[in-house]
């Protein structure tokens, strides 16, 4: 990663925001999104305090998870840039210990929705117990770990990761959707026996479209606003989401159907050159975009995020919101959301302010 970008580290006390997106302002000016911003600021109000909508209880004691969070951050730093199955398992172990300390009062039990015939075509839907007085935003999360595992439940987490993302959304007065998707052949990044864009990314992009279609047609009775879908996708999920966002043929007939998207530690550049080709030729609707990297992402991943950022800056004449999350690796930033470490939450709030 370029030296200037590498130094852009987000502390717990501050939000650093790069670039201003001009497209999509009208969508993100909706009342639902302004309520979301208020909920996010309530969440940010104190370490370990998770304030939801009216009547939502504080989650545990303020800072109750602070000791476990400190141990997790130390463990992630010790892993450093190394990324393999053992590093992922250790990161899951560290953050499972953190999430055991966190409770989520006021969140209904998740409802599992099957949006296709394949076993992987399912998502868990989370919503607040108190319901909605007005339609709320919908957060869609696409996990990934850079190793071909895109399951909505991280192995070894006792179901605590990535369910915490849906619970966080519900606690913030939104609807949370944590989805599985098909990776195609190989590891979903062109490294399998049948590599290539169609073989590896099209199934997942199709699944994202199917989930957005489901939300558009079914989310209103749950209290959600189908016009305020915010997508957050990590690793393989981010690569798959980019393939969807920059390919009109894979989108809904009306366009992407997404109000804003965060591509988190995505595999771009040399790891997925097909994405650069799609960006070059894309003439469709532009979705306000944030790119996140972890301080301890591998250099290959970091360089790929840089390459995509530069390409988007040149294509549109302004740049995505670009964040480097201090103290985190390829997945730990996403795992830290909802904990007393507010680095990633600050980045999420900062992204909102670039497009409001």
- Specify the overall morphology: globular
Instruction: Specify Rg, calculated over alpha carbons.
Output: 18 Å
Unreliable runs: 1-33, 43-62, 186-194
Into how many domains do the coordinates divide?
Answer: 1
Query: What is the count of DSSP helices, taking H or I runs of 4+ residues?
Result: 13
Give the DSSP E fraction (strand runs of 2 or more residues). Answer: 5-15%
What is the arithmetic mean of pLDDT?
A: 82
Strand arrangement, largest sheet? 1-9-8-7-6-4-5-3-2
Which helices and strands appear, and what pairs or packs with what?
Layout (H helix, E strand, L loop, with lengths): L2 H4 L2 E2 L14 H4 L2 H14 L21 H14 L5 H15 L11 E4 L7 E5 L9 E7 L20 H9 L3 E5 L17 H4 L1 H17 L5 E11 L1 H10 L14 E5 L8 H9 L7 E6 L4 H18 L4 E5 L6 H5 L6 H13 L1
Helix pairs in contact: 3-13, 4-5, 8-9
In brief:
This protein has 356 residues and is of the alpha/beta class. The chain is 38% helix and 14% strand.
What does this structure look like?
The chain has helices at residues 3-6, 25-28, 31-44, 66-79, 85-99, 163-171, 197-200, 202-218, 236-245, 273-281, 299-316, 332-336, 343-355, and strands at 9-10, 111-114, 122-126, 136-142, 175-179, 224-234, 260-264, 289-294, 321-325. The chain is globular, with a radius of gyration of 18 Å. Residues 1-33, 43-62 and 186-194 have low confidence and may be disordered. The two termini are 29 Å apart. By secondary structure, it is α/β, with parallel strands linked by helices. It has a single domain (3-355), classed as Alpha/Beta hydrolase fold, catalytic domain (Rossmann fold). Helix 3 (31-44) packs antiparallel against helix 13. The protein is built from 13 helices and 9 strands. A 9-stranded mixed beta sheet has the order 1-9-8-7-6-4-5-3-2, with helices on both faces.
